[in-house]
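**Fold tokens**
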Amino acid sequence: MNRLAEQIPSLGPLLAKADHVDIKTIDSPADMRTFIAGMLSHSPVWLKFLYGVRWVFVRLLGMRQEGSPLERPLLPADISFTPGDSATFFTVTMAEPDRYWVAEASDTHLTGYVAVIVEPLAAGNRFHVVTIVHYHHWTGPVYFNVIRPFHHIVVRQMMKAGARYKPIK
């Protein structure tokens, strides 16, 4: 984590006070916009099913569910690097093209950040996908610890989708 804060100093405050951080890495010939578009476009049937299960679970905790998996694939040009712009149910918080992209989704129970950090390789890029979670309420750790095993699977599958994404223009 210190290495990430050194690479992207603006991540430092998010990492310092985080309740949970995980980093996953994948290599791909994709450029950054294509990778992010592919990640955010990943919406298989099993993921839609998990969102349905999540809907019931969050209701039991007295929370709401905003958004669901995307219905149409994103194009690389749909990926904004402007803070405040939407990216599916995320909001871009900070970004620098071909270097990093950070977006957040916030609710009463927690705020989750997804960061994509690019490391250029001789052939393609290495993408580091970072999840940062900050709890706001007692329901935050309850919710996240229940979904945590699924979170790891979902993020890994989103990364694989981003790494091989071929957008239809």
Summary: The CA atoms of residues 29 and 62 lie 43 Å apart.
